[in-house]
Amino acid sequence: MRISALAAEAGLPVATVKYYLREGLLQPGIATSATQASYDEHHLRRLRLVRALTGPVGLSVQQARAVLQLVDEPGDDLYATLGRAVGALPPEGAEPAEASDPFPRARAALEELGQVYDPGFAAVAQLECALAAAEDAGMPITRERLARYGRAAADLAAYDLERMPREPHAAVEYTVLGTALYEPVLLALRRLAHQDVAVRRLGRARPVE
Amino acid sequence: MRISALAAEAGLPVATVKYYLREGLLQPGIATSATQASYDEHHLRRLRLVRALTGPVGLSVQQARAVLQLVDEPGDDLYATLGRAVGALPPEGAEPAEASDPFPRARAALEELGQVYDPGFAAVAQLECALAAAEDAGMPITRERLARYGRAAADLAAYDLERMPREPHAAVEYTVLGTALYEPVLLALRRLAHQDVAVRRLGRARPVE
DNA sequence: ATGATTGGATAGTTGTACTCTCCAATATTA
DNA sequence: TAATATTGGAGAGTACAACTATCCAATCAT
């Protein structure tokens, strides 16, 4: 399969595929001559993944590249790789910074939840940032709500982890892509559940089942 | 309070505050003369909200404007207003489109969950889009996982709705801002829960409680 | 043999989110 | 009261991201 066929298959302009090649999101095809290279379904699958990450997931090209690189070469420390991969996902919280207690809100929250955490883990900064934003906007999160959300998150995590493949490479792919791809699903479901509950409570005619 | 004081208070350049005024994210101050206007804490709170929406929540300026307008002037149909507000939040799924069954995956999923839904509701398109992305990327969501996520979402929605203010204006603000501001919290908690579960299972030394 | 296609590089386009510069009118300060 | 600083408002300018278009000489298909 040549580049034009690959692009057509993926429904993208050739110029865009070339752009992804340049940016390192797509591995180069096997060169069959100075001006020809061949691509296979592996490349097609990758292209679809790139579109999923830059589209619905909302990653920038650079973030997608970072995530894909980690999936491609996980390194031998599974734990560190997963941490780094999640750090590459939006939203980006400010980095660890300076102070003795850089994440006061997140620390308090996690202690309250009785959760183990690594202060270097990017999600801690993300949590701090999100909690601060809610506060700044005048809608701070109550302890009770935090506990509720935390419990739900823990349930889902337990479920997901049970299904994680044993083999390290597959485990990284599963976790990283699972985080990136399933989060939008969870958010959409939450929004729809809000609507469902609202309709049942407020009583409204329009919706159909 | 004049514009420079407002900007200083919010930690922003004056030019940026002017930009938000131009873009209609911030309501103009009360003009005290041809070249002076005065702002109060109301404006400051709004400015913080704008930063929360364009920062951690990840809205573009236009999306933030759309959300804020709905919060400001909810219209008399609470249900429609909430639907429109959620539609203004990312990620944007393609619009209803054409075909007889524009959202096959989402429809199947919601039927499976036994949920009431309005096909015109933006979150349906978002769900369709997210499910399609997961499929395209080679990690389709199983029925079982969907059920699990759906149940978690329903629990959270029930909790949130119970706490929704009665007064319509306040209800819109609560729902819209709650969606925008609490979603990042939920995602961060999910990521941290993954790590927590992983550590407990895989056994790892570094993290602290 | 001849027109189309390719990889590779460079430049151009579009859109977003600011940021800067001006200006005359006002406010503050000396 | 005179000199200096600040303001609101408008328009232009900047920086970056994500493509998109153009070239080119080397192949490839017919």
Automatic annotation (TrEMBL), chains A, B:
Keyword annotations of the record: DNA-binding
Record keyword DNA-binding present: yes
Alphabetical list of PROSITE patterns matching this protein: HTH_MERR_2
Domain of life of the native organism: Bacteria
PANTHER family attached to this UniProt entry: HTH-TYPE TRANSCRIPTIONAL REGULATOR ADHR, REDOX-CYCLING DRUG-SENSING TRANSCRIPTIONAL ACTIVATOR SOXR
Protein name: MerR family transcriptional regulator
MF term (GO), any: DNA binding
Residue span, HTH merR-type domain: 1-70
Pfam family name, one: MerR_1
